[in-house]
Amino acid sequence: MENAVSYAIKNDFYLVENLIEEDAFLKKALETTRENNLPEMEVSSAHGKFLYLLAKIKNASRILELGTYCGYSTIWLAKALSSGNGIIKTIECNETYANIAQKNIKNAGLQNKVKILRGDAAELLNKLILEKEEPFDMIFIDADKLNYPKYLELSLQLSTSGTIIYGDNVLRGGKLSNVSNPDSRGEGVRKFIEDLGKTKTLESTVLQTVGIKGFDGFSLSIVK
Ligand code: DHB
Ligand code: MG
Which atom from ligand 1 is nearest to the alpha carbon of 144? Predict the structure, then answer.
């Protein structure tokens, strides 16, 4: 049966065909997910290009990513870095994912622009804070949804005025506000959104999206 989501999926194919040119390395990164029988949970092509455009609009030279997965969004972001010496630090706790991402990033010739930090995101963020890491221009939160509130709190300590903070997958397949059907990831994301609203140093919004990944959405914030 045709419904809004099935139209949106067809639209996504049409839009991507007309607007988005993926180089061989981006295609390869997507292929490795399938070759390894892993879930296709990276951002869509249109969404990857959106992140790339956002990083370009921001003229970002320092990007932090939480949740590397197989490196697909990392490659999009690396392609957008403003200067020759721009850097992405990307955190991944799963060794298999980190190894695949490392290969994809090397294959794309981006190994000098991307540093994969392996381990628990909260621990690694705390380490960066302790080591007085320079603030990032853009922070892409795409790791385990349950811990989004903690990641926000730590990300704020690695930010400065103008830093963009982006939260992926905050709609829980459209069921975000269905509190009668509790799931811990939904609760993590709801707390994250409520924290965004309460954080007076942030200006935030959330957009709901529909496309190849079904019903989805993201938050976008800027540090005042
Ligand atoms: C899931 C996680 C993601 O970051 C995503 O973009 C899609 C799905 C998941 O955990 O299922
Ligand atoms: Mg995601």
Answer: 10
- Taking each helix axis as running N to C, give the angle between helix 95-107 and helix 24-35, from 0 to 180 degrees, rounded to the nearest 10: 150
Sequence-ordered list of residues with C-beta below 8 angstroms from that of 224, at least 6 positions apart, any chain: 161, 200, 201, 202, 203
- From the DSSP assignment, how many helices (H) and strands (E) are in the chain? 8, 7
- pLDDT tens digit string along 110-144? 999 999 999 999 999 999 999 999 999 999 999 99
Sheet harboring 138-141: ordered strands across? Answer: 114-118, 87-92, 62-66, 138-141, 164-168, 214-223, 202-211
Regarding pTM above 0.90, the answer is yes
State the CATH class of domain 4-223.
alpha beta
Provide the 10 A C-beta neighbour count for residue 65: 29
Tell me, in angstroms, the distance from the centre of ligand 2 to residue 206's CA: 15
Closest residue to atom 1 of ligand 1, CA basis? 41
> Domain-by-domain residue ranges, the chain?
4-223
Please say whether the beta carbons of 171 and 192 come within 8 A: no
Alpha-carbon distance of 3 to 7, in angstroms, equals 6
At 175, the pLDDT band (50, 70, 90 cuts) reads confident
Read off the DSSP letter of residue 137: S
